[in-house]
Inverse folding.
């Protein structure tokens, strides 16, 4: 098999699925311009779904109510997207503010509202998602630490899928690769982020691919450490922050990106270092305060009693690793299930 000379970027017309044109062909009264689906948005949606499914499974393993994660996702997803967008806008003011910019006009490219064009900052999503998880914990009675520990691995999966959207959008690529590097990414010279002075045909670091690989490895690392060290009380989140901070401090430093600099270092690199520090603090503090396991994913007095599960003949253990289905036809199993439920 021949070694590829470079990594191509998808054709620009792949960025949008023209559903409106297909509907128009069947129903001429439907305007062909109505119904554009951006592939970037589909990648983000796929990441959200993956994160919800992973978090739901992890909470179920702890004995939480099935699909209680949906009550939390309403807050984490909404606030995560909103804060992510505005974090990006205010760390890239030159892209959105100033003469000739379509700052507020949602119908024009470059608006601060045009989320589908890309530009959703990870650290903004992390801050907004954390706030949403806290609000969700108040409504559901789940411990905040249990929620964030359940969500953390899924966030890595969501970020990996989201980076595919950056590839489709031809954005957030890295510095030029060394001459002859076969893994270089092809970017059109007309790209708004093309560095001035570089010749046509220059290949760039595929930072989207680097981050996908880093995130997938991170999922494996977190699951391995969780089983070996029985990480709870927010410690899974701590490992996640450290892992992501290490990776992003490198990816952000090589990215062709007009973000703001502070003391000669990009804002997102400072944020990555901050994530590492916060992760280490959480790990140390929570290890000292809570050397044992969480007694329940629920706050005291807010425990969920799975009466419907007992009535239907099944319930779930409070183990991190095992899901036990109780057969209602067995007297001994039914008795055991009632004890678990109580």
């Amino acid at each position: 098999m021949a070694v590829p000379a470079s990594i191509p970027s998808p054709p620009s017309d792949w960025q949008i699925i023209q559903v409106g044109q297909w509907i128009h062909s069947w129903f001429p009264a439907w305007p062909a311009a109505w119904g554009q689906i951006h592939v970037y948005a589909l990648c983000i949606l796929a990441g959200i779904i993956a994160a919800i499914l992973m978090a739901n499974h992890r909470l179920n393993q702890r004995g939480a109510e099935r699909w209680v994660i949906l009550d939390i996702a309403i807050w984490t997803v909404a606030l995560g997207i909103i804060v992510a967008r505005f974090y990006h806008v205010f760390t890239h003011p030159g892209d959105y503010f100033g003469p000739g910019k379509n700052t507020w006009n949602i119908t024009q490219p470059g608006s601060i509202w045009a989320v589908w064009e890309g530009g959703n900052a990870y650290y903004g999503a992390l801050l907004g998602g954390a706030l949403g998880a806290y609000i969700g914990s108040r409504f559901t009675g789940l411990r905040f630490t249990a929620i964030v520990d359940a969500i953390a691995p899924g966030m890595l999966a969501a970020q990996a899928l989201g980076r595919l959207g950056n590839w489709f959008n031809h954005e957030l690529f890295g510095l030029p690769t060394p001459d002859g590097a076969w893994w270089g990414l092809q970017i059109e010279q007309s790209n708004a982020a093309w560095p001035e002075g570089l010749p046509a045909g220059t290949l760039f670091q595929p930072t989207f691919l680097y981050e996908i690989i880093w995130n997938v490895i991170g999922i494996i690392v977190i699951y391995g450490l969780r089983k070996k060290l029985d990480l709870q009380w927010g410690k899974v989140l701590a490992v996640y922050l450290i892992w992501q901070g290490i990776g992003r401090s490198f990816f952000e430093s090589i990215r062709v990106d007009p973000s703001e600099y502070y003391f000669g270092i990009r804002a997102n690199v400072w944020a990555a270092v901050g994530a590492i520090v916060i992760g280490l603090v959480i790990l140390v503090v929570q290890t000292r305060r809570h050397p044992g396991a969480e007694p329940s994913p629920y706050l005291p007095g807010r425990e969920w009693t799975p009466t419907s599960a007992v009535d239907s003949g099944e319930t779930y253990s409070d183990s991190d690793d095992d899901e036990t289905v109780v057969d209602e036809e067995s007297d001994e199993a039914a008795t055991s299930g009632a004890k678990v439920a109580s």
Observations:
- DSSP finds ten helices and six strands in the chain.
- The longest helix spans residues 144-168.
- Residues 308-342 have pLDDT under 50 and may be disordered.
- The radius of gyration is 23 Å.
